[in-house]
């Protein structure tokens, strides 16, 4: 005890100045490293290490795993090795999640995601704002590696150079490097379907040009798929490498057809789009079932005003819990509202009550959607991934379905009434469950929407911080380091100050 008292009493002000400067210097270096790590891998290093490694040791394993699973689900589990240490965990778009996380807390691929070059790129061209966060693009890169990456025993042959270029392209995060690798693969093999798919997604300036490149990719992918003998009965005698290559070619072909159908939808050819989406919903490989192409089909049928076909599609998928989403529940409510709109007066009240009940269930499933449909919050470009029952899913749904709600007379009025009644009657177990789901998906929404989210998901996490002002954060870190360096120099080399004669006299008198 006496030693500690002596030590504390012997400390001089210069020690405290040096301690403050050193701690500020270390904090600034950590902040700079965090900024660099997030720019490169799309996630926070400290948050990732604390959740994945320190949480179980400190007794927070359950909560940490729950929070970790709430941010995953769209990336592939086997793609993390190629995606860098910051790729984050992924549950596999086509496989089962690693833990018992609830479906509403998972991150899913947005079936209505736009083309990066022809659609997302317009926001950067006009407003100089990044349409997607690094976390969102990181999840997409993991999925691309899982779907299109070459496994062991594959790619041996004349197209090996093209496969190596595409493997590098799927790992890259920078658009320029991805496009350069895709062009190199196309130069090595002119009929490389994955390279054509990537160029159509990210390089084509218009939807029409993207469709032209995708048609070329379709011909190349279909030829490669048939050459591999990827039919239903041809896979029995294939080795593991050949079977993996056949699955990869089937995934490429399905993705090309899906993007072609979306281009046809954008260009107004609704019948062609509906036909291709029906084929995909029926014949898509199991790895792509999590893409939920039936939601694309629902949107096209709503645009065609084919409400009977929409009802049939919704009834086919509503029994499956894994396909339950904002699109399915709000489409059911929209169909009930249309039935109430066309009903004759004696039965109109009954149909309106049924529509109100369906809308209450929809609002309970995702309470963020009405704010966008009622235009209480501004719309933005939807992300490539969404959190089930979260703000990102609400934004993605309203972005594509707001016009369909406007076409049905009285639908928005009934939705407003359902929201008001739900706010008055929300209590007990349902309110607690909704609060838990909202807290579960809030972190994923912040990472996906970043600072460019439409009002509700800006800030709070590492993604929001760097998305709002990465340059300002780096400048602040540099200022902190400079101040710490000046403080350390001042403590090491203090300026000699002359003592006043009166003070010196008092000091000598006291002695």
TrEMBL record:
<dbReference type="InterPro" id="IPR007311">
    <property type="entry name" value="ST7"/>
</dbReference>
<keyword id="KW-0812">Transmembrane</keyword>
<keyword id="KW-0472">Membrane</keyword>
<dbReference type="Pfam" id="PF04184">
    <property type="entry name" value="ST7"/>
</dbReference>
<feature type="transmembrane region" description="Helical">
    <location>
        <begin position="15"/>
        <end position="38"/>
    </location>
</feature>
<comment type="similarity">
    <text>Belongs to the ST7 family.</text>
</comment>
<dbReference type="GO" id="GO:0016020">
    <property type="term" value="C:membrane"/>
</dbReference>
<feature type="compositionally biased region" description="Gly residues">
    <location>
        <begin position="75"/>
        <end position="96"/>
    </location>
</feature>
<protein>
    <recommendedName>
        <fullName>Protein ST7 homolog</fullName>
    </recommendedName>
</protein>
<feature type="region of interest" description="Disordered">
    <location>
        <begin position="62"/>
        <end position="102"/>
    </location>
</feature>
<keyword id="KW-1133">Transmembrane helix</keyword>
